[in-house]
Amino acid sequence: TNGFSATNSDSSNYEPDADGYRYKTGWFSFGWNPTDSVRITGNLKAKQGSADYDSSWTPGPDKNNFSNFFANLNLDAALSDSALLKVKFGSNSDYRDYDSTFRFKGDVRYFSLQPVYYLNQSLFVTGGVNYRQELAQFPDYHSANLRSLFAEVHGGCLGLKGTAAVRRDFHSSFGDKTTYKLSLAYDLGVT
Question: Rounded to two decimals, what is the model's pTM?
């Protein structure tokens, strides 16, 4: 883009729309069925660019260089006619450099394992575990992780649909927390 100015003519360091935004990105997605009951999918994305901006307190143009890399892998497997297994892995990395005076690097990694069991056509149970790790260098190094266990029951009868769920989170910085969910909905259908 041609850019924008974060300052105005009343500012002592005014630059009239001298900022720009440039980036390059690449994206790759794939899917593979090694058997009739297993599906593997994934995504890869890379982005690199820079953005000029007016800092409004220092003369001259300022620039933010950035890059991002994202990858995930998903596995969906039918273990039987009534049992499924879902597995997810992922990673997201961000890097930002503000005119070589301030740098930020952040990484998020996650894992999820979720079995699903269908008791009949209108009733199923599921549960699983999640893990998420966050790393940041800003300018010091910081780390946090979240581990979770969850269980859910979903069912329906005579137009009513209900869910009961419980989740237990274990956060490395904020401690443990249990949350519950109960919901009920009625399907009016097409009138």
Answer: 0.76
